[in-house]
Amino acid sequence: MSTPHAAIRALLFDVFGTVVDWRSSVISELETFGRARRIDIDWATFADEWRSLYQPSMEAVRNGTRAWTILDTLHRESLDELLEKHGVIDFTDHDRTYLNETWHRLKPWSDSVAGLTRLKSIYTLATLSNGNIALLVNMAKHAGLPWDAVLGAEPAHAYKPLPEAYLRTAAFLGLAPQQCMMVAAHNEDLAAAKALGFHTAFVARPTEHGPGQTIDLEATGDWDFVTDSMTGLADLLGA
Amino acid sequence: MSTPHAAIRALLFDVFGTVVDWRSSVISELETFGRARRIDIDWATFADEWRSLYQPSMEAVRNGTRAWTILDTLHRESLDELLEKHGVIDFTDHDRTYLNETWHRLKPWSDSVAGLTRLKSIYTLATLSNGNIALLVNMAKHAGLPWDAVLGAEPAHAYKPLPEAYLRTAAFLGLAPQQCMMVAAHNEDLAAAKALGFHTAFVARPTEHGPGQTIDLEATGDWDFVTDSMTGLADLLGA
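^ inputs. structure came back:
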């Protein structure tokens, strides 16, 4: 039997939660900013609320009732909505842009840079994220993520889990789904990719959503590889 | 007077001729392949003919008479046309794909990797090439080019020198033209970028077209920076 990874040329990465620890990064930046402005809000709750608006905000774009809109814009709309809900009205446009770009400054999990650097010696590494290009490029500069290509929803003009997000990303690389492996901490993301013929690797991130996380604690599908770090994935792939 | 580069966040690079020496790379690969197949053609002439079909092949896409088509496809059509012209009829589809991907394996000028690596510590480095994403990503893996983002004609769906190629590339990075500098060995490329508000850097590559080169031997416009290597550009920008 041939090994499942013999045909794989590119690894396509979910980013939020899989490569970077969005929650603790966002909470930390919000708390610092709030303290400087003497605004007393439970910023952990605020961060969770911000993220809870993520999927709904993309849905209008996915179902075609809204024209293509990048994630920076959706994040900003959600931020404005939450600031109003929490009674914060005196943040300037400059403040809000700065806070919105917290998502450009997310910190990687401790194993991400080392694991990706090893994997890059064998595979083409590309993002397959719903984040927009500027967000992902700035994050990579900030966090030292060694992508070969920053792809995903924006160049594909489709948000995951729509099939076009996956298929167009593979096509941009000149590859068939069978030559690519989706790497994600989210079972639903892998299920969408696998249905299209992509190989799959689950990287458990059981604290992505904080101490009370209830989903994606473990692999729930028949994925090709299961691990709990990028260095673990490099081990499994012999990189 | 403020230095012209104080506002610059990203450097956008022309690739063919500016970063890589396409002509000697293509001639070398064609000669090796031709020798193995015992086909006696003047491969330097063949390479120049192949490149001479480059601009005409994009023109139908630029003027809208042909739907968006990536450069790999245009290169392949030109290759097939030239092989027929030179009486080569026994190359298989596999042979032709291999030869077409010569453009994915172009060698960098000797100063490119060192210069880009220095520039990357200060600026976001992105391609703004008419090459398609797969071509540029494979080239970067092969040549060690440390791009932060592989952008340009394919994600912009517009070939240079159409304004959309430049403007959409800046927009993908979340930047205004005034925050970007176009880096090219071609005066016409810089003229198109400058007209849109981009900063400009000319990198002389007087042997790009071989010993008989007659164009782009020197800067013919009022560019912000003029040099003859990527390490020279890094020197000028203090990187």
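The interface with chain B takes residues 72, 124, 126, 132-135, 137-138, 140-141, 148-151, 154-155, 172-175 of chain A (CB under 8 Å). The radius of gyration of chain A is 18 Å.
thumbs up if we can close this ticket
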